[in-house]
Specification:
2 strands, 58% helix, 290 residues, 14 helices, transmembrane, mainly alpha, Sterol_Desaturase_Related, membrane
Amino acid sequence: MALKTILNVSYVEPLIGLYPKQSLLQPMWDVILRFVSSDVLQSPLLPIIFSVSFYFICCFPFMIVDIYGKKWYWIQKYKIQPTKEVTWSQVYDTLYVTMWNHLFLILPMTIVQAFVTPLTVIPENAPGMWEFCWQITLFMLIFDLEYYVWHYVHHRNRFLYNHFHALHHRYYSPFSWVTQYLHPWELLSVGVFVTTTPWVIADCHPLTAWGFMVTNIIVSIEAHIGFDFPWSLHHWCPFGLWGGAPKHDMHHQRPQSNYQPFFTHFDRLFGTSTSFRYAGGVIENKKKII
């Protein structure tokens, strides 16, 4: 029996009666269908253009905080490495690499994809909220495994690290623009993982696939911002299953540890987990998180 059939909300709704017949996402989906033309929604260019735009929009506010908010105690008290400041030269450096990758890698691939990728099927009905949530969770777990393997291999193999991944580790104190401060090979690998992961669900709704893409961008940036906010997911996710910025910030300080991008279970299982650094530079002992 297919995974989607096993987890289909139709088995759950009659038992608990918590779900309306119409998906909670239907009003939003109706607005999208009404105000965005079908040609745009069906275009294979939409996910790429949207994801690139969304990435820049999300990074920009943190750049303002890093550059102009150095004396804003109300937010700087959450900085993980409080003695490290972000400079304009670092912003220019990371933006230069990011723009180079998008102009000479993403743009050509986008043009090719426009000719070889079939149009997206746009259904009239939105996915159910349960379907939307469990599928995105599944996609995040799959992506986490894919990148954990990629990341582990590219750290343990000196040739791969020096030629493809070392660029990302030029900054021991990450900030938002470091998220895509990547060698083209790494950006391509991540792009393939994000694009192909929803394919595990044969008829995955486009809204769910886009939701996964947006979620991936948000949590990837959050892992690099260098701030440990009290409302961040790692503070309320049970059993310490989510690492967040404290986990990945420590990876940039101790590159041979914390390979998982988001979750923590594989790092714990394979002994690659180490202590995290929290707001104000406080380091929690490894024994407290395992």
